[in-house]
């Protein structure tokens, strides 16, 4: 009898393991191939998302008020610094408007409707964050009904933070570029060097120890120096051109000495996200 | 009698509350919890489940904990990670382990702390192994122990110390 019950337990454990791995494999496959999750999952996620808002809104509000009190303490200094920047910004903004207008006219002249730089911004707030160290994901409060699609790039502050990994009707999951899975941070980017040359490449990973994005397999002869700006190149997929990723922090040879490897400091603090912007491209 | 007590509704409500609080805590304190390279993962829902198993043994009340643990795991998988089939098995396993452990030792605050230590280690280790198998991360075993397991244990044991008596009060009130 003892032997029988031991065997039965072993069988249960093995069956559970097999079922678990089968389910995980299927859901990873669905996640990689389909543009939306199965309907049941979408529906469930929408309902949980609604309930979560009831829990999240008071606590996020509370943390907002706490941080605003701490910000109040250095308001005076900040105000003085910002005043200087505002006067510069007004000039840049006017120039930006004029250039955008001119650009539109020129596009019309050559009958070019949409170019790689065109996108509309959908602003969303972060409801919650995945409590896991293997998946750096946040859930935002805009979904398919607001025009969000899978793989669209997401920005916060001044730079790129990740891409949409899963879209439900009223919320969606954003996979941050700090996530180290096989597909999270493969963005096509380009770097304009000091001598004016353009270097194209693909982001290849994230180094958690230093908090830098890495970029491998660059075989160009152009000299990339520290401080060069990295922006998305708009090649392939749904990412528009010209989203700011970060600055080059270090260039080294790769492990085999054949190509160049770059370390990029991200433009935004990736651990502190409250309001994000989804770049919706017209396709 | 479980069927007649307030626990019948109180337990699931608490379960989902702590499940959602896990995400909210991770979001609100993300600067402190997810400071690279080390990450602290909040597992308050596991705390609620483990406390349920401990107080169940204490008061000779039988609750359908494993079933609710599986439901919480399913919601966790679908809503938080998007990969179904991991926590839906880990959470009932935690209940099973805790029940076995508290049948051997008399549950109280200190032994509960040790049981919770083992539970969190199992949750994190299985989560790590599964995500390695599914190619969701490429962290080495050393990096896992130092950067994730250590800080996570520290955070969750502190939470156990802070929340054990309030949660016991809630269970006693619901009973």
From TrEMBL, chain A:
UniProt keyword annotation of Signal present: no
Coiled coil regions in record: 72-109
GO BP term (any one): regulation of cell shape
A single Gene Ontology CC term: plasma membrane
Keywords carried by this UniProt record: Cell shape, Coiled coil
Keyword Oxidoreductase among UniProt keywords: no
Domain of life where this protein originates: Bacteria
Residues in Rod shape-determining protein MreC beta-barrel core domain copies: 126-279
Gene3D superfamilies in alphabetical order: Rod shape-determining protein MreC, domain 1 (2.40.10.340), Rod shape-determining protein MreC, domain 2 (2.40.10.350)
A Pfam cross-reference name: MreC
Family statement drawn from the similarity comment of this UniProt entry: Belongs to the MreC family.
UniProt function note: Involved in formation and maintenance of cell shape.
Name of the protein this chain belongs to: Cell shape-determining protein MreC
Gene name per UniProt: mreC
Automatic annotation (TrEMBL), chain B:
Transmembrane regions: 40-57, 78-97, 109-131, 143-167
Family: Belongs to the MreD family.
GO BP: regulation of cell shape
Keyword Nuclease: no
GO CC terms of this entry: plasma membrane
Membrane topology listed for this record: Multi-pass membrane protein
Localization (cell): Cell membrane
Domain of life, per lineage: Bacteria
A Pfam family the protein falls into: MreD
UniProt keyword terms in alphabetical order: Cell membrane, Cell shape, Membrane, Transmembrane, Transmembrane helix
Name of the protein in its database record: Rod shape-determining protein MreD
């Amino acid at each position: 009898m003892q032997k029988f019950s031991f065997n039965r337990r072993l069988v249960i454990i093995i069956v559970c393991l097999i079922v678990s791995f089968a389910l995980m494999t299927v859901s990873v496959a669905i996640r990689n191939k389909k543009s939306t999750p199965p309907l049941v999952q979408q529906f469930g996620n929408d309902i949980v998302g609604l309930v979560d808002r009831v829990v999240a809104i008071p606590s996020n509000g509370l943390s907002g008020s706490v941080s605003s009190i701490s910000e109040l303490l250095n308001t005076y200094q900040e105000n003085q610094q910002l005043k200087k920047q505002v006067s510069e910004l007004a000039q840049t903004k006017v120039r930006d408007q004029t250039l955008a207008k001119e650009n539109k006219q020129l596009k019309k002249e050559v009958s070019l409707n949409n170019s790689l730089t065109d996108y509309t911004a959908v602003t969303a707030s972060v409801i919650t964050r995945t409590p896991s160290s293997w998946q750096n994901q946040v859930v935002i409060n805009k979904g398919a009904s607001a025009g969000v699609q899978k793989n669209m790039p997401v920005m916060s502050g001044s730079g790129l933070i990740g891409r949409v990994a899963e879209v439900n009707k009223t919320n969606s999951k954003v996979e941050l570029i700090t996530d180290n899975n096989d597909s999270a941070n493969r963005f096509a980017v380009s770097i304009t060097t000091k001598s004016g040359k353009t270097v194209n490449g693909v982001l290849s990973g994230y180094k958690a120890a230093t908090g830098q994005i890495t970029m491998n397999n660059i075989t160009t002869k152009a000299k990339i120096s520290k401080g060069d700006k990295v922006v998305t190149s708009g090649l392939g997929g749904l990412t528009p051109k010209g989203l700011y990723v970060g600055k080059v922090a270090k260039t080294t040879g790769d492990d085999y000495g054949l190509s160049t490897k770059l370390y990029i400091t991200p433009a935004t603090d990736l651990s502190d996200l409250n309001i994000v912007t989804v770049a919706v491209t017209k396709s | 009698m479980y069927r007649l007590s307030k626990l019948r509704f109180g337990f699931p409500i608490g379960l989902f509350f702590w499940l959602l609080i896990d995400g909210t805590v991770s979001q609100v304190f993300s600067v402190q919890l997810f400071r690279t390279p080390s990450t602290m993962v909040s597992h308050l829902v596991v705390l609620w489940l483990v406390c349920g198993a401990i107080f169940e043994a204490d008061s000779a009340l039988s609750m359908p904990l494993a079933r609710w643990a599986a439901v919480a795991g399913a919601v966790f998988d679908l809503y938080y990670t998007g990969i179904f089939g991991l926590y839906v098995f880990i959470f009932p396993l935690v209940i099973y382990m805790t029940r076995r452990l508290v049948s051997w030792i008399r549950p109280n605050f200190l032994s509960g702390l040790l049981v919770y230590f083992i539970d969190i280690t199992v949750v994190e280790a299985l989560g790590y192994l599964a995500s390695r198998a599914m190619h969701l991360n490429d962290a080495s075993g050393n990096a896992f122990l130092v950067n994730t397991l250590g800080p996570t244990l520290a955070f969750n044991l502190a939470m156990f110390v802070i929340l054990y008596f309030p949660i016991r009060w809630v269970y006693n009130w619901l009973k």
